[in-house]
Every structure is written in structure tokens, then in C-alpha cells.
Amino acid sequence: MPDFSDRLIFPTITGHTLYKIIYTVPPSHLAATKSAIFNAGGGSYAEGKLHQCVFETTGYGKFKPVFSAGAVPHTGTVDPVIVEIRCEEKEVTRKAVEALRSSSI
Asked: Are 81 and 59 in contact (CB under 8 A)?
């Protein structure tokens, strides 16, 4: 499990420490990944006054294969969603990351 100490966002006024999980996902898996994180306690902060807090950005990605590295010879595109979810405290963040990894992506 990674050490989240280098991903510290900022201490809140209430003394809780916030972390942010940022990941990209195909639109087809967006609901499942968010649900997994929310069920693990992610996306809730302000001492439980806010739940399922998330910021989503749709994007358009392009890639060009490196033939010498053995890539398939075609240029492609992807339409991922970039998801940002804050978590209070390190243990909640660990559980949320574990839930994300175990979700259907």
C-alpha cells in the first residue's frame, strides 16, 4: 500500500487532514468506481456534513504508437473522465483507494 504522506492536501479548520484521489476512467465505469469509493467513506468531509463530493472533467486524449517499442500500428483516441474525490484522514483514503482498485475497472 502506498504511503499517502506526500499527497497531503491541507489541514482543515476542524483539524482533519484532507487527501485527494485523482484517477481517469472510461465513462462506462464511472458510476461503479465512484460508488466503490463513496461506500468506503471517500467523498465525505466537513465532519460528515457533505457526502459524495466529487469533481468530474471529461477529456479527449490522443496517443501515437511507438513502433520501435512494439506498439500496435495505429493512432487512437480515448474519451476518459478525470475524477477528483477528497477524503478526510489517511485511513479513509487507504480504504477508498483499495475500493477503487477492487472496483470493476
From this structure: yes
Distance CA 84, CA 22 (A): 5
CB neighbours of residue 88 within 10 Å = 22
Residue type for position 35: S
Q: What is the fold, at CATH topology level, of the domain defined by 4-102?
A: Alpha-Beta Plaits (3.30.70)
**Residue that wins the pLDDT comparison between 49 and 53:** 53
Partners of 58 in beta bridges: 81
* pLDDT bucket at 13, cuts 50 / 70 / 90: low
Three-state secondary structure call for residue 27 = helix
Domain limits, the chain: 4-102
Kind plus residue range of the DSSP H or E element containing 61: strand 61-63
User: Is residue 12 helix, strand or coil?
Assistant: coil
pTM recorded for the entire structure: 0.74
Tell me the helix, strand and coil percentages in the chain, rounded to 5: 30, 30, 35
